[in-house]
Amino acid sequence: MAKPPHMPAFMAVLLCFLMLGSCPLDVMGEWRTCQGTVGMKGRGEAISLEDFGGVGDGRTVNTAAFREAVYRIQRLRRRGGTLLYVPAGVWLTGPFNVTSHMTLYLARGAVIRAVQDTWNWPLIAPLPSYGRGRELPGGRYMSLIHGNGVHDVIITGENGTIDGQGFVWWNMWRQRTLPFTRPNLIEIMHSRDVLITNVMLLNSPFWNIHPVYCSKVEVRHVTIVAPHDSPNTDGIDPDSSANVCIEDCYISTGDDLVAIKSGWDEYGITYARSSSDITIRRVTGSSPFSGIAIGSEMSGGVRNVLVEHVNLYNTGIGIHIKTNAGRGGSITNVTVSDVYMENVRKGVRIAGDAGDHPDKYYNPKALPVVDGVTIKNVWGYNVGQPGSIQGIKGAPFTRVCLSNVRLRGGGGGGSTPWKCTDVSGAAQGVMPWPCAQLSSSYGMGSCSSHM
């Protein structure tokens, strides 16, 4: 809710609470945001894709034009960087890289559309924290828009579209004819100061936005859409990355809307790069799988995560923290608050038996740690099953703290019980009541400091 002019800060906060029950404002009445983590820079020069022979007729392949334009930006290194302008039109292209000090700007009505000749799609090496392609052994296909070892990169515009034309890839997956792991739509690796804002992403072949081994990444005002039956079309997956902010996005896909990751079993343990200091705020969407997820690939560790003011509709699992024996790593200091969910199969799931393994060489004795998870101010209607918290025998989940979590069934009921094993923590104001493993008192327990 915007604050009307001249309204005192405390009145804005009070009005927001009276009308909405909660409000994403700080104590001074300002809208909470991490906007500015990565600045929107003006560039020293602007060039157009048409300057390099690009044709936006939906038939001409513009891969060479994109690559030549990026090469020029990289080679000339103009002071302040360069903006690559993509005019209105449909710009068919194969994969291309971005470079440092570059803005990729999509004008209103501009569509960057992926070619469908998968046989010519470049292959790149597997991620070291995964040891192989996520779907299949060996390499993986390069993302449509890719960056490696870059900094000061902006992808923005006037809500132009990046269309992955994923149908051909999804069909190969369904028919089991994929030779390698499918491409992401946007993947930025080993990079910093990355901003993605004011664009629409459509029909990604695989994950949509994948910052991996990055720092200072901001994703704001992005719309991500794919059919609910499209396989593995995760929305935004921060992976072994630090200082990531995701705000004010709408996501409707065939898999997790946002999933925080950090490597897979023995490869992630060895690479040992965590995901940390991640903020997810004001995200709305729907998915047959999870709304907000951590894992299941989390072997490098995940810590210091804040999720707040999220709205989920027609979703499989609202809040999903998932790991498995063999993962190693830890998930610590996670706070999820002010979540509304409707028509959700399961409200909360914290699971120690989720996800597969890359190969037979993982160590089943590498047990993950889940400690310090706070979930508060969560409301749900037409929730099929309120939740389950199932830790790992020999590695119970600790300091799991639930407060003001009210998840009702479709008829206003909510009598379906929680399922809990191998967990300790506390619960307060939870309906239906979660389980005996969680203490009913915060004041005396390990959760007092989390509230």
TrEMBL record:
GO biological process, any: carbohydrate metabolic process
One of the record's GO molecular function terms: polygalacturonase activity
Keywords: Glycosidase, Hydrolase, Signal
Signal peptide bounds: 1-29
Keyword NAD: no
Entry's family note: Belongs to the glycosyl hydrolase 28 family.
Name of this protein: Polygalacturonase
The species this protein was found in: Acorus calamus (Sweet flag)
